Amino acid sequence: MARAFLFVLDSFGVGGAPDAAAYGDEGADTLGHIAEFCAAGAGDRAGLREGPLSLPNMSELGLMQIARSASGRFPAGMPIPEKVYGIYGAATEISRGKDTPSGHWEIAGTPVSFDWGYFPMEGDAFPAEFIEALCMAADVPGILGNCHASGTEIIARLGEDHIRTGKPICYTSSDSVFQVAAHEEHFGLDRLLAFCRLARGLARFPQYRPRHRPTLYRRVRLHLPAYRKPA
After folding, report:
1. Could you tell me if 173 and 153 are in contact, meaning their C-beta atoms sit under 8 angstroms apart?
2. Residue 33: burial class (beta carbons within 10 Å; 0-12, 13-18, 19+)
3. Do residues 137 and 121 make contact, with C-beta atoms less than 8 angstroms apart?
4. What does the mean pLDDT of the chain come to?
5. Where are the beta strands (DSSP E) in the chain?
6. pLDDT digits (tens, 9 = 90+) for 198-215
7. How many other C-beta atoms are found inside a 10 Å radius of the C-beta of residue 199?
8. Nearest to residue 125, comparing CAs of 174, 76, 167?
9. Other CB atoms within 10 Å distance of the CB of residue 48
């Protein structure tokens, strides 16, 4: 085979993993639960959609059989095609952890056999020494957030405070990456990028990467170029 196209439907889980309970996700089955809600009428929206969930093209490629293989049953109310035209299968991730990098590594053929570190769920998410050094280097009066949050939720909650104080919003998600949100006009896009580069640079220092959290700031470190302070 000369090449293959890989399409990832983010957050479109079918069935659950054997170790789901270890991460608080026992019973996870995004497709199955959406189908249940639609079959019960909970997904009806006037002028938009109504009735059971229907994904005819994906179903003809094998989605219904994948769902049965992964969860033991067909999704509630979804039509089962008479003929399947695709070659299908359901895979179980063997990497340990619940995070984005592990899945990406395993898709590329490199399963993660060790435990990633995760930011603490209670209290401040990031080490105080790191935040102090980052704020000093970036010349900002502090940060907002410093917690686990959804990006849309924390921007809605802290957006006005951010504009008023000039403090960037720093938060993390379930896969423990350091994320920054700031207003492109009030804070400035160039300033935001410089802030991220500083964070990436500081995260290289061992004192800001505690041993029990080995993946601290991984997304910033992987995706942003090194920052050199102008002479």
Report:
1. no
2. middle
3. no
4. 84
5. 144-148, 169-172, 179-181
6. 998 887 775 555 444 333
7. 27
8. 174
9. 7
Q: What pLDDT, on a 0 to 100 scale, did the predictor assign at position 105?
A: 85
Amino acid code (one letter) for 79: P
By CB atoms closer than 10 A (0-12, 13-18, 19+), residue 61 is: middle
* Inter-residue contact 99 to 26 (CB < 8 Å): no
Q: Are 181 and 155 in contact (CB under 8 A)?
A: yes
Beta bridge partners of 147: 171
Q: What SS3 state is found at 148?
A: strand
What are the phi and psi torsion angles at 103 (to 5°)?
Answer: -65, -40
Task: Collapse the DSSP code of 171 into the 3-class scheme (helix H, G, I; strand E, B; otherwise coil) and give the result.
Answer: strand
Residue bearing tokens 């920054």: 180
CA-wise closest residue to 28 among 51, 52, 12: 12
Coil, strand, or helix at residue 132? Answer: helix
What's the predicted TM-score (pTM) here? 0.63
